[in-house]
């Protein structure tokens, strides 16, 4: 494997910075990003942003009532990501198998988030 050129490194940095912009997330949810970006950023980058919100809610009693709606909203967001995964085109030669695996995984994430929601516990 060769080391990336300065131009390639600049492009990588620009792509990473773009992931923290509203246009990127709109494009992602419309299925216009590559399959890999849609799956990984949609499921896990968003999860890394959601987790601190949940932790704050756990430690601030006035936010307890927002826990259940937050989980439901995140679950609905993951359903939108599942749709985007279905629409996204692989950039490489990953094929339909990876697309189906990514779709199933994302749907399972959405189901698990809603299943552990405080609503599901009857609270």
Task: Give structural notes.
The chain has 123 residues and is mainly alpha-helical. The protein is built from 5 helices and no strands. It has helices at 6-18, 22-29, 35-59, 67-87, 95-115. The termini are far apart.
Rg over CA atoms: 17 Å
Measured as a percent range, the helix fraction is over 70%
Structural class: mainly alpha
Return residue spans where pLDDT drops below 50 for at least 5 consecutive residues: none
Distance between the termini: 54 Å
Q: What letter string, H or E per element, gives the SSE order?
A: HHHHH
Query: Treating each run of at least 4 consecutive H or I residues as one helix, how many helices?
Result: 5
Molecular shape: globular
User: Which whole number gives the mean pLDDT?
Assistant: 88
**DSSP summary, beta strand count:** 0
β-strand percent reads under 5%
């Amino acid at each position: 494997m060769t080391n990336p050129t300065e131009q390639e490194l600049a492009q990588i940095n620009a792509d990473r910075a773009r992931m923290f912009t509203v246009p990127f997330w709109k494009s992602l949810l419309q299925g216009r990003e590559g399959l890999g970006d849609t799956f990984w950023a949609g499921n896990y980058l968003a999860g890394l942003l959601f987790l601190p919100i949940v932790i704050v809610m756990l430690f601030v009693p006035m936010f307890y009532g927002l826990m259940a709606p937050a989980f439901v909203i995140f679950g609905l967001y993951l359903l939108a990501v599942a749709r985007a995964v279905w629409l996204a085109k692989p950039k490489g030669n990953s094929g339909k198998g990876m697309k189906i695996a990514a779709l199933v995984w994302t749907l399972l994430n959405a189901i698990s988030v809603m299943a552990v929601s405080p609503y599901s516990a009857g609270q």
